[in-house]
Amino acid sequence: MIAAGAGRPVVSVVASAGYGKTTLLAQWATAERRSVAWLTLDDLDNDPVVLLSYLAAALDRIEPIAGSLRSALAAPRHRILATALPRLTSELYRWQRPAVLILDDVHHIVDQTCLDALTSFTDQLPAGFQIGIAARTEPGLPLARLRAQGGLLEIDQGDLALDRDEIRALAEAAGFVVTPEEADRLLTRTEGWAVGIYLAAMARGRGRDSSAPLGSVSGRDRFISDYLRSEFEQDLDDDQLTFLTRTAILETVSPGIAEAVAGLPAAAPRLHALALTNLLIQEVQGSTDGYRYHNLLRDFLRAELERREPGGANAAHRRAAAWFLAAGDLDSAVEHFMAGGDIDGAARIVAPAALSMFYAGKGRTLNRWLQGFDSHTFTRYPSLAVAAGWLYLMNGNADAADHAADIAERSAGPGASRLGAASYESERAMLQAIMARRGPSDVLAKATYAVSQESLDSPWRPTALWLLGSAHVLLGDLDAADAAFDATVAAEASAGATEMIALARGDWRAADGFVRSARDGLDTDYLDEILPSLIVYAVGARLAIRQGDIAGGRADLVRAQLIRPMASHVAPWFAVNALLELGRAYLAISDPAGARSVVREAEQVIRKRPNLGTLTTELIAMRRRLAGASATLVGASALTNAELRLLPLLPTYLSFVEIGDRLGISRHTVKTQAMSIYGKVEATSRGEAVERAIELGLLEPFYGLRLAQPISSD
């Protein structure tokens, strides 16, 4: 069946549970001469970083994937299509040999960015590479477009349904001899659903009414669940039923976690015996002790759990969370706490781990968890609100950062900190200092308080000193700033402040040391696309240009340009300082258009935070300097934040309407912004604009790029 689609890049197998999708793909994989990578998806893969990480890991089994992909996965969500995907597809082209990737249970993927990522990945496949997709319902992928292009082999429920002869063979294998007429009735009732037919045969074989004609079976879920209930209650003792129903909340059941969740011993022999006697319990491929319950069985068991033990699912999830927490698997612990309705349990884990997770490149998973906490949770755990404020401002999510900061400010908070600071009051003071809602004098007061609270060995002391030095710079006291920065132990904590004083004093050597140290931190922590990196690239550009390295300066300006949309009023002095440095770099290469763009963005910040001390004065001076410049706002450096958000979506298959849906703007606005991008990068079409953006370094190369349609006809 699949051999007929050898020339088509995508094979789609869509059918309800029990129609043999996975079996068909497994047979394909066994018969395939090309290398095969297999990835089974679940609900937890609705995070583009997690999805692409697992996708890369699956492909890595065929041939090692370049380590540089990891840094690309740390990119902001809105740029994931323009960073990790090009690098991943380029790996396939580097292989220069055909292969097959099988994605099972794709129906679990509902996150739009993940769907866009899978679609773009599919669009860029090299010749000889195929993807097999199995799902219970048609996934949110543009199968219609692939169908129209002749690039799709579709296998649906009708193709997988058993015919009359196959139904008779299956029934006979289960111990029944059926007439052709009975087989026809079974076919009509079950529509060839293999599992339904099998369960019907089993029900007639062991159920109370074994004399009923096989052809009278109903394929409705209620009948199947009724049969499974009677079957399990008849053949299993109460301990076994308890074991199965409680462990059904797990995706993969292994002995250790099973004993904790079920509260019963000897899980390993139980699982082994159950798998031997029940076709719906199988060992996980490639695992030595993991088992998976068939989806139908798992659904039935979870319903049985609530019938036998009302509230039992929540209790089981909480026991699973406690087990994973003790095992050091914080991610799984949080997922189960949330699934079990124990939001407080999840909050207690997330708060102390939030910042370390963020710096470990798990920002998207962390953001998904934070979205599961409401205002009441943040109020009960104010340290969590402080952590959320920091994370959101570093990601450029201004509204969410403001909301978290509001809660933190209203809360008296406990004396103790959950973030590793000396106290809640100290950690809150540092968030208030970076957000500068009440001007430089308040920044100084909050930073001074934090420094007084944080001991010499506190992990927060460098941040407190950095904020103190920054406050002195804003107030024009460079000598006091010097003293604060001299006391800062962690060089990376002083990013955005030591360069301020170094350049204010004309100390280019110190500024160069700052950039070198900061770049090492970015490379190590995969943090090259969050707000703190903006100042690194801005100062790096100025230094390179001053040393005559114009190409290097322009490269840093491009990197900074991609991060500029994150600069906002929630970290106002940091944002304005970085934007001013970018403006000076643009002027150094005689690009007043680029300088005007960043000055406009800085002015938008100042409108919301008008009192920024010396930075306000510097911005006025920069505006006056540009007043006489004659250059118009053209060139890639003049791209606005809105245009920079649109740019990563241009290489995709998305139409203007679909892009507008993703960005929350109208089709007309998308077209207006796209046409503006064309003019600034000197292009006349969507494809040419993408090519120019790649040449300029604003987009990563997309191998085998195939745009859905030219912009002019969108």
By CATH reckoning, the class of the largest domain would read Mainly Alpha
The total tally of domains equals 6
Average of pLDDT? 82
Radius of gyration equals 30 Å
Q: According to CATH, what is the topology of the largest domain?
A: Serine Threonine Protein Phosphatase 5, Tetratricopeptide repeat
Please tally the helical runs, counting DSSP H or I stretches of 4 or more residues: 37
| Beta fraction | under 5%
- Name of the CATH homologous superfamily of the largest domain: Tetratricopeptide repeat domain
What is the end-to-end distance? 37 Å
Give me the count of strands. Answer: 7
**Shape annotation:** globular
Low-confidence residue ranges:
206-210, 216-220, 489-497, 706-713
Report the biggest beta sheet as strand number plus sense, adding barrel if it closes. 5 strands, parallel
